[in-house]
Amino acid sequence: MAVATHPRVWFERRRTRRDADYWILHGFERRYPERVTELTSRREREACARSLRNVRRELSGRWVSAVPLRRAALRPHQSLLEALELRLLGGEGVSGLGMLAVHDLLGDADSCLYSPVEDVESELRDVLAKLEVD
Predict the structure, then answer these.
(1) What one-character DSSP code corresponds to residue 61?
(2) How far apart are CA 119 and CA 124, in angstroms?
(3) Burial (0-12, 13-18, 19+ Cβ within 10 Å), 102
(4) Distance (Å, rounded) from C-alpha 116 to C-alpha 85?
(5) Less Cβ around it within 10 Å: N or C end of the chain?
């Protein structure tokens, strides 16, 4: 049975995560091992991989939703989306920075999935490269 968390505690955790994410994005991943562990957990990786799989399904035309994907621009890059999905599901470790990049790809309205960008391929390859552990 889940225990209800007081809103103040929830907001404090959210703020702490957001602060850690900021510093991870700026190269201080080693200073936030708890957040990196949370970001790179099997559960988080599977959730992101599932979201990428759903994007690919929608691009293939077999599954349609109200998500405002840039279908025409993304269809030629389905293999990169699949590579991202497989990388997340693989047994190799991933970086916290890479997981934040995946989160931005899936959840940011300005990502190449939803907004016009000049080079979709390079953005997807950049996310894939960021997943590599140094």
Answers:
(1) T
(2) 9
(3) buried
(4) 22
(5) N
Per-residue exposure over 15-40, b if at least 16 CB sit within 10 Å of its own CB, e if not: eeeeebbeebeeeebeebeebbeebb
The predicted-structure confidence for 89-100, as pLDDT tens digits, reads as follows: 998 999 999 999
Residue 68 has pLDDT above 90, yes or no: no
Domains of the chain, residue spans = 41-130
What Å distances lie between residue 17 and 4, 32, 44, 51, CA to CA? 19, 10, 14, 21
Q: Residue written as tokens 């702490």?
A: 16
pTM for this model (two decimals): 0.89
Q: Kindly report the number of other CB atoms within 10 A of residue 127's CB atom.
A: 23
